[in-house]
């Protein structure tokens, strides 16, 4: 082999060896980078920015269950950096995500401040060692769902009694067809049960309407007219019960609201006060203007409400005195309607009661200025606008005006 051929062969061998060495070096660097990446607990770029923009509580934890980063809302659940996950449920969820096990959201209870909240937790691995856990507060959702279930169950139970009574009385009327006196008695009882069923159905529908997001027709409502109308509407009930209804307090107050809804709420309070007052007593309806709030108080001298029942009297179908409610035809929905009606108008209902001394329900609503005042202000603004030119100055003097008349 000649010298040039030997040189070319040596060069070829050098190139092959150099390329092999370079490939080995590159492969070793890549393996090292992968090992470093797998062992690293550093956050990938952008994770903190994502956490900062989240409205839900979210944390990133490492293999030991220690919080590496957290969103601002997570602080309410005591998730702070370098803290350990507070529950074993969350630790198990993180380990399952790190192992690549897909899991559905897990519902659990976590402390938020001094209260426990129901949360739905979901975890997903973002590296081989880091796991992102996102929490969603479902406490209100669970409460609403429980209310829906209770409402359906209670409604079914309440409707079962009058419907069953109507069926039995219908059979009794049929069996007593030859006895006109019995037929008339059963017919009267049948009418009472039908009225009770109609009242219950009407109140259920009213409460359902109040709990929807349907827009409310608002207008200026004179509190004096509202009270007078409801006192007149319940005059027959008061006369039958031997109860005197008295009106006192401030005059001339206005609220901005839905007149039928406010009338039903006040009517329910009056009906309850009369029904639970002894004969010969009186029911007072008082109005007080306090700053930007108008208070309408309905006070009775009745049996009162035990302290243990006062927190629950506004619940649907709750009756503090079951026997008396049955006798008076109470549905257990009147105060629930009052509460939702007042809340819908931006107000609140307060209760004071002592057994044997009576009860006072106070409705607090935002005070509205009288319509004449608003009309006067609008007229004054209109006059000010007409006295100004389009440029905001007084109009130029018209010399011809000096020669008129």
Automatic annotation (TrEMBL):
Residues 374-391 have a biased composition (Basic residues). Residues 154-369 form the Histidine kinase domain. Keywords: ATP-binding, Kinase, Nucleotide-binding, Phosphoprotein, Transferase, Two-component regulatory system. SMART domains: HATPase_c (SM00387), HisKA (SM00388). Its EC number is 2.7.13.3. InterPro entries: BphY/WalK/GraS-like, HATPase_C_sf, HATPase_dom, His_kinase_dom, HisK_dim/P_dom, HisK_dim/P_sf, Sig_transdc_His_kin-like_C. Pfam families: HATPase_c, HisKA. It is found in: Cell membrane. It catalyses: ATP + protein L-histidine = ADP + protein N-phospho-L-histidine. Signal peptide: none annotated. It comes from the Bacteria. CDD domains: HATPase (cd00075), HisKA (cd00082). GO terms for molecular function: ATP binding. Residues 360-405 are annotated as: Disordered. Residues 395-405 have a biased composition (Basic and acidic residues). This is Sensor-like histidine kinase SenX3. It comes from Microbacterium elymi.
């Amino acid at each position: 082999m000649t010298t040039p051929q030997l040189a070319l062969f040596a060069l070829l061998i050098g190139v092959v060896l150099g390329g092999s060495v370079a490939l080995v070096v590159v492969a070793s660097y890549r393996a090292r980078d992968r090992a470093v990446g797998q062992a690293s607990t550093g956050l990938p770029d952008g994770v903190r920015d994502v956490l900062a923009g989240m409205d839900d509580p979210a944390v990133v934890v490492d293999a030991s269950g220690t919080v590496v980063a957290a969103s601002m809302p997570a602080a309410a659940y005591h998730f702070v950096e370098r803290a350990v996950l507070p529950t074993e449920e969350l630790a198990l969820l993180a380990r399952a995500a790190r192992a690549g096990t897909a899991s559905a959201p897990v519902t659990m209870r976590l402390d938020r401040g001094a209260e426990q909240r129901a949360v739905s937790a979901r975890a997903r691995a973002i590296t081989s060692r880091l796991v992102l856990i996102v929490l969603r507060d479902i406490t209100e959702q669970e409460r609403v769902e429980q209310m829906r279930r209770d409402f359906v169950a209670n409604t079914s139970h309440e409707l079962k009694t009058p419907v069953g009574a109507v069926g039995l009385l219908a059979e009794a009327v049929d069996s007593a067809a030859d006895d006109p006196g019995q037929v008339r008695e059963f017919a009267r009882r049948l009418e009472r049960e039908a009225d009770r069923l109609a009242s219950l159905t009407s109140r259920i529908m009213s409460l359902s309407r109040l709990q929807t997001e349907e827009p409310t027709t608002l207008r200026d409502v004179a509190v004096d007219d509202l009270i007078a109308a409801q006192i007149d509407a319940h005059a027959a009930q008061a006369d039958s019960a031997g109860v005197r209804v008295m009106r006192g307090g401030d005059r001339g107050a206005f609220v901005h609201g839905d007149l039928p809804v406010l009338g039903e709420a006040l009517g329910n309070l009056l009906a309850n006060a009369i029904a639970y007052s002894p004969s010969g007593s009186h029911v007072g309806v008082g109005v007080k203007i306090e700053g930007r709030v108008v208070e309408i108080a309905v006070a009775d001298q009745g049996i009162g409400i035990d302290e243990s029942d006062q927190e629950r009297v506004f619940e649907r179908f709750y009756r503090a005195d079951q026997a008396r409610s049955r006798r008076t035809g109470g549905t257990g929905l009147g105060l629930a309607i009052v509460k939702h009606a007042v809340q819908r108008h931006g107000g609140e209902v307060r209760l004071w009661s002592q057994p044997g001394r009576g009860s006072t329900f106070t409705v607090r609503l935002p005070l509205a200025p009288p319509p004449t005042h608003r009309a006067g202000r609008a007229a004054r603004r209109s006059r000010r606008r007409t006295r100004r030119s389009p440029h905001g100055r007084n109009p130029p003097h018209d010399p011809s005006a000096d020669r008129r008349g």
